[in-house]
Design a protein that fits this description.
heterodimer, A: alpha+beta, Immunoglobulin-like, 5-stranded mixed beta sheet, 3-stranded mixed beta sheet, 8 helices, 35% helix, B: mainly alpha, Cytochrome C Oxidase, Chain A, disordered N terminus
Chain lengths: 299, 561
């Protein structure tokens, strides 16, 4: 804010002087043909408009430095929660090493109480190209760079959904690599963690179509890229689907998670998000319906 | 204005005007080594690419005007912003500034040509070839496996998106080769300008008497050596990565993505000054003439220019505040970035002081200079904001940044260039440009510029990142993007006035004479257009404003220097 204020004042003063000079010293028809007095310079005046800006710059620099040190050089509290963030073309992978939870695209974190702060520390890297993690209302952005580990922290004081998106051009679908951060009350967050820790129920004896979908899923190439905990699907190239049905969106926040959307997505991802790296599986209608039913049960 | 004309003894019979067969004219231009013809070809090349890059910009603004638009495909959009950025920097801004430098520097220092006329022609043709090569990618780059054709990696082409695995086919190779070749051309011309300025000045033209334009081109050309070289080297390294199994930027094999960023921005930020210094140069020549006063504080202006040249080499990593450099590095680059505002401020204050107490004539060149002064002031101040690292963590890579650097490049550099066109067109063609059309151009362009780039700051503040081909409704971005799009209509209309004015005035413009603006530097002492040899007899000067001395023998500048 200080920077904003100072630059605004500078603008008003300099632009005002410029405007005044242009009007006051315009060429008037009644003026004589004589050239105006030629002035070649003035050391005193020029010294003043060198020294004053230097003082302003030093002031702005010191106030900026205080913020940088306050953000980047403060110790991490013991109560902090760790999350590993991995950027992929074009989705986000989240791992909670202390809690044993793995999820994708929708980051859940506890709100922080000033009395008992529980900030979330993000350790970030990329599986392919450079991305950038930016949720404007939570913090500034930090780049997510392959072969480099970056860290940042967020500390929301209010529960709610915070939106953001990838802020470093990363390929065709950079525009739809969205970020959703759910800041939850400690009780809600604990409940979410408890649910995510355990594999979704895989017994579909009362639901034949989902049971069929499970077989289709496990016997197709789906398992090369996706994990569903508790099954033989252990691929890590695409998002973890263990609790897919508990998410509000699919395709990294780009599409609402409804059975119709899910079915269209499985049928042909490129029709919804052109450039997505998930291939169309060319399944028949029966298999499509079955897989959709199965995935919709993974709560 | 004073009616005194100071004309060097040009023998008009030496410049035959009879018509020649068209093929002979073409041959003459293709094989010329004359600095004026090469300069004009540079400018013509830039104008063609300005239209191409402008069309790309308009297509992007149509796509973004409303949310969820399907005007172009995602891949086509990514190609558009890559080509727009690459074209505007390497094939519009650089050639047009080198073009004016080529044309003006020898005339202003009283020389007959550049130091190396054939190197000059080589540099131009290499740059022109590079531009054609870049666009040939639309036809030739699909390769065996690629889906797209034109480059789609962004104009700063961050590794490892450019690696073979993420960018198959040859589109990235076309980009790399085009940037590489344009770099060779730029270094050649910069070398030529530096040598010309040091070795070819006329009698009495000490360094301390050179017009400020010449000083600024000297600093700019020096910067080109230091900044284009790492960029050119990086292109070779990237090609080695892609074809020879090197791993400079190949993160899958232990290479570094951050290394490419350093290579690119050690070029990329000083490049901004490579472009803005010649713009300062135009302002330095035009503002005094239309204020009827000598430039205020010549020595300080020279010192500030050289100072900007040096400081600009130590600010590049302010493009990298978000890559995790650590607090110490961030603090250093914040400081360097803020310090550069001091010499820049000196320049603005000195222009203000030049206007102060003068008699301001609001001809079209001066109008564009005034636009420059206000807009560059704003651009500089948003630059200070972004130079403050915490501010940049939020707004880096957002539309706020896009608005900021277009404020510099369009509001600053392009406005200064328009001023230069209106000011020196009479010297180049012998005819004045139409003032009426010029004012239409100015006002349409000012309105369009402010509609587009003032309002572009706002979606950035609301969290809209750059380089996205579409966005959902409901983030508060849609109305602003519509206004931004409407601005491009006015800018296009203004640009049409300008192009029409260039053509119309060539045939129908008022005869200009040698010195239509009653100016003071040497180029106005010869005919318009100047003959091939520039000056019948080489001039000799006693001060910074030789023509002032001739017009005011009772009160020459040489008494005050």
């Amino acid at each position: 804010m200080l920077v904003l204020g100072v630059t605004l004042v500078i603008f008003l003063v300099v632009a005002g002087l410029l405007l005044y000079a242009l009007i006051r010293y315009r060429n008037r028809p009644e003026d004589s043909d004589r050239e105006p007095a030629q002035i070649y310079g003035s050391n005193q005046i020029e010294l003043s408009w060198t020294v004053i800006p230097i003082l302003i710059v030093v002031m702005l620099f010191l106030s900026t430095t205080r913020v940088i040190l306050g953000t980047q050089a403060i110790p991490k509290p013991d109560s902090a929660m760790n999350v590993t963030v991995i950027g992929h073309q074009f989705w986000w992978e989240y791992r909670y090493p202390q809690l044993g939870v793995v999820t994708a695209n929708e980051l859940h974190i506890p709100v922080s109480d000033p009395a008992h702060p529980t900030p979330t520390y993000l350790t970030m890297s990329s599986a392919d190209v450079s991305h950038s993690f930016w949720v404007p209302r939570l913090a500034g952005k930090t780049d997510v760079i392959p072969n480099k580990i970056n860290t940042m922290w967020i500390d929301p004081q209010q529960s709610g959904l915070y939106l953001g998106q990838c802020a470093q051009y990363c390929g065709t679908q950079h525009a739809k690599m969205l970020l959703r951060v759910y800041a939850q009350t400690p009780a809600d967050f604990a409940a979410w963690v408890n649910q995510q820790r355990h594999p979704a129920v895989q017994d579909f004896s009362g639901n034949p179509i989902a049971a069929e979908g499970q077989m289709v899923f496990l016997h197709n190439a789906c398992i090369n890229c996706h994990t569903v905990a508790g099954t033989t699907a252990t691929g890590i190239f695409g998002p973890d689907l263990t609790h897919l049905a508990s998410r509000d969106t699919i395709a990294s926040g780009a599409i609402q998670n409804t059975p119709e959307n899910l079915k269209q997505w499985i049928d042909d991802p490129n029709s919804m998000k052109p450039g997505s790296l998930m291939p169309a599986m060319h399944l028949n209608q029966r298999d499509l319906n079955a897989i959709t039913a199965y995935l919709s049960q993974l709560r | 204005m004073s009616t005194t004309h100071v004309v060097d003894g040009i023998d008009e019979t030496l410049t035959p005007q009879q018509s020649r067969p068209p093929l002979s004219v073409v041959y003459e231009w293709l094989t010329t080594v004359d600095h004026k013809k090469i300069g004009l070809m540079y400018i013509g090349l830039a104008l063609i690419f300005l239209v191409v890059g402008g069309v790309e910009a308009v297509l992007m603004r149509i796509q973004l005007a409303i949310p969820n638009n399907h005007f172009v495909s995602p891949q086509a959009f990514n190609q558009l912003f890559t080509m727009h950025g690459t074209t505007m920097i390497f094939f519009v801004a650089m050639p047009v500034l080198f073009g004016w430098g080529n044309y003006l520097v020898p005339l202003m220092i009283g020389a007959r040509d550049m130091a190396f006329p054939r190197l000059n022609a080589f540099s131009f043709w290499v740059s022109a070839f590079a531009g054609v090569l870049l666009y040939f990618s639309y036809v030739g780059a699909s390769g065996l496996y690629a889906a797209g054709s034109a480059p789609d990696v962004g104009w700063f082409a961050y590794a490892p998106l450019t690696a073979k695995v993420f960018s198959p086919g040859h589109s990235t190779d076309y980009w790399t080769l085009a940037v590489f070749l344009s770099g060779i051309g730029s270094i050649g011309t910069a070398l030529n300008i530096v040598t010309t300025i040091i070795c070819m000045r006329c009698k009495g033209m000490k360094m301390s008497r050179m017009p400020l334009l010449v000083w600024l081109y000297l600093v700019m050309s020096g910067l080109v050596f230091v900044t284009i070289s790492p960029l050119t080297a990086a292109q070779i390294m990237l090609t080695m990565d892609r074809y020879l199994g090197a791993h400079f930027f190949d993160t899958q094999a232990g290479g570094s993505a951050v290394l490419w960023m350093h290579f690119f921005w050690i070029f990329g930020h000083p490049e901004v000054y490579v472009l803005i210094l010649p713009s300062f140069a135009f302002i330095n020549e035009i503002v005094p003439v239309f204020s009827r006063k000598a430039i205020f504080g010549y020595p300080a202006m020279v010192a500030a220019s050289v100072g900007i040249g040096f400081i600009s080499l130590s600010v590049w990593a302010h493009h990298m505040f978000t890559v995790g450099m650590g607090a110490a590095a961030n603090t250093f680059f914040v400081f360097a970035t803020m310090v550069i505002s001091v010499p820049t401020g000196i320049k603005i204050f000195n222009w203000l002081a030049t206007i102060w107490g003068g008699k301001v004539i609001f001809a079209t060149p001066m109008l564009f200079c005034i636009g420059f002064l206000f807009q560059f002031l704003i651009a500089g101040l948003t630059g200070i904001m972004l130079g403050s690292a915490p501010f940049d963590w939020q707004l880096g890579n957002s539309y706020f940044v896009v608005a900021h650097f277009h404020y510099v490049i369009v509001g600053g550099i392009l406005f200064a260039l328009f001023a230069a066109f209106y000011y020196w067109y009479p010297k180049v063609t012998g005819r004045m440009m139409s003032e009426t059309l010029g004012k239409w151009h100015f006002w349409l362009f000012v309105i369009g510029f402010h509609l587009t780039f003032d309002f572009m700051h706002i979606p950035g503040l609301l969290g809209m990142p750059r380089r996205i081909y579409t966005y959902e409704a409901g983030r508060g971005w849609e109305g602003w993007n519509m206004i931004v799009g409407i601005g491009t209509i006015f800018q296009t209309a203004g640009l049409l006035c300008f192009v029409f004015n260039l053509v119309w005035s060539y045939f129908k413009g008022k005869e200009a004479g040698h010195d239509p603006w009653d100016a003071w530097t040497l180029e106005w002492s010869t005919t318009s257009p100047p003959p091939d040899y520039n000056f019948a007899s080489l001039p000799a000067v006693n001060s910074r404003r030789p023509l002032w001395d001739l017009k005011h023998p009772e009160d020459p500048d040489s008494d005050y220097e």
